[in-house]
Every structure is written in C-alpha cells, then in structure tokens.
Amino acid sequence: MITGGSTGSSTYVIPLLLLTGAFLLRMDVKKYIIMEMPKEGKTTLFLGWFNLVLGALLFVWVWVM
Question: Model's pTM, two decimal places?
C-alpha cells in the first residue's frame, strides 16, 4: 500500500543532523583550533559538513517524495 507523507523518523533525523552539524561547526571546531588539536579539528570540520549536507539532502528527498 502506497501512501503519501513521511514515515515519522525523518521528522526527527533531519533536524537532528542539521542541528548537530551546525553545532559542530560553530562550537567544536573553534575549540579544537584554540586547543591546537589540528587532527581533531579537521575531523570535526568534516563531520559537521557531512551532517549538514546529509540533512539537507534528506530534507530535499523527503520533500520530493
């Protein structure tokens, strides 16, 4: 049976990905730069952008479907 709309989990996952990505980029990256931990800073930077992009792609996917 095909129905329209969301299954429910995307309404929690998408904002969570966007918020955690923004938090990582806004707070944690600066903290690691100040503490002179470049490897952790790069990893956090990657994960922050990964969360934001994945959240945006999922948002578009759910909106299109």
Answer: 0.80
